[in-house]
């Protein structure tokens, strides 16, 4: 079935280590000429262009959380739009702390803004002139054009019994467009709130973590890691992310129609090996399953 509302996986890697064959986390929802950017990992502007989307069409950016692999190209986004003398507003939505990050990046634009192209009398618009920030949190709802967006806090930072307490927030997002509903888990561990958010969605785009393989790779490349550091990473990878089986369970409980796995943590997962992980998801979920590559449209 063809939809007017499309989800494009711009960057399907996961984690802070750069990957050879996948860009950092970033995705786009397109509807007509409007573009919503979801997260803004390293290379997001170039990935938009590779997908055939002029980055100047982006008018809304939603950040799910503030880990660096999800926000690394935000400075690039502000800077190139400044240099191209953007006048159209960009609204950046994100959890508490987003305003501080954007203001810091805007401050970093002061020097290149003053330099301009080195032509006497020329002036640039400053990102403060065209960027607005709206901080969102669990249970936030808002509308972009004709798409209704609902947020919930997830378990990427803390367990379910601590959700809603003071501290940093990581969000999952639901997009209800006139033609389809799409849920993006962002980074999360197993979470009943995310299951509720995803109920009945046509498309679930969810993260996938391979904790044991990642830990083994970390140890091989960092032989001096202390046992305490390894234990800490193990807790994070096992409890703050989803295994393929857990992603399948989430999809089955939510009753979604299709699952797309992103946030692929290892370069060794290629189009040839991806079906092995799709099988693990399908062991718990009977619908359509895809392991996304960069620039795939859904």
Q: What topology does this entry show?
A:
Elements: E1 5-11, E2 26-31, E3 34-38, H1 44-50, E4 58-62, H2 74-83, E5 90-94, H3 98-108, H4 110-115, H5 127-130, E6 131-135, E7 141-144, E8 147-153, E9 171-176, E10 181-184, H6 192-197, E11 203-207, H7 211-221, H8 227-239, H9 244-254, E12 258-262, H10 274-282, E13 288-291, E14 296-297
Parallel strand pairs: 3-4, 4-5, 5-6, 10-11, 11-12, 12-13
Antiparallel strand pairs: 1-2, 1-14, 2-3, 7-8, 8-9, 9-10
Give a structural overview.
The structure is a single chain. With 298 residues, this protein is an alpha/beta fold. The protein has a single domain (5-297), classed as Ribonuclease Z/Hydroxyacylglutathione hydrolase-like (Metallo-beta-lactamase, Chain A), CATH 3.60.15.10. It is 30% helix and 23% strand. The chain has 10 helices and 14 strands. Strands 6-5-4-3-2-1-14 form a 7-stranded mixed β-sheet. A 7-stranded mixed β-sheet has the order 7-8-9-10-11-12-13. Strand 3 (34-38), helix 1 and strand 4 form a beta-alpha-beta unit. The longest helix has 13 residues, at 227-239.
């Amino acid at each position: 079935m063809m939809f007017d509302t499309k989800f494009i996986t711009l960057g399907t890697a996961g984690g802070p280590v750069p990957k050879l064959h996948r860009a950092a986390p970033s995705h786009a929802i397109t509807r007509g000429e409007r573009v919503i950017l979801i997260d803004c990992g390293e290379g997001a502007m170039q990935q938009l262009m590779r997908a055939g989307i002029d980055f100047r069409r982006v008018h809304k950016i939603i950040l799910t959380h503030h880990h660096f692999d999800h926000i690394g190209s935000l400075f690039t986004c502000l800077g190139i739009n400044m240099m191209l003398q953007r006048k159209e507003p960009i609204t950046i939505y994100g959890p508490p702390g987003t305003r501080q990050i954007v203001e810091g990046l805007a401050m970093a634009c002061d020097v290149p803004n003053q330099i301009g192209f080195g032509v006497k009398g020329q002036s640039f618009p400053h990102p403060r002139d065209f960027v607005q920030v709206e901080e969102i949190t669990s249970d936030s709802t808002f509308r972009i054009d004709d798409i209704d967006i609902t947020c919930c806090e997830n378990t990427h930072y803390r367990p379910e019994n601590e959700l809603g307490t003071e501290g940093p927030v990581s969000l999952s997002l639901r997009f209800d467009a006139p033609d389809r509903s799409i849920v993006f888990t962002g980074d999360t561990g197993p979470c009943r709130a995310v299951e509720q958010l995803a109920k009945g969605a046509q498309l679930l785009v969810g993260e996938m973590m391979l904790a044991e393989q990642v830990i083994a790779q970390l140890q091989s490349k960092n032989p001096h890691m202390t046992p305490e550091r390894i234990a800490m990473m193990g807790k994070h990878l096992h409890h703050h992310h989803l295994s393929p089986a857990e992603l399948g369970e989430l999809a089955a409980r939510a009753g979604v129609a299709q699952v797309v796995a992103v946030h692929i943590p290892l370069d060794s997962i290629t189009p040839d090996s991806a079906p092995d992980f799709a099988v693990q998801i399908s062991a718990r979920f009977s619908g359509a399953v895809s392991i996304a590559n960069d620039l795939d449209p859904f």
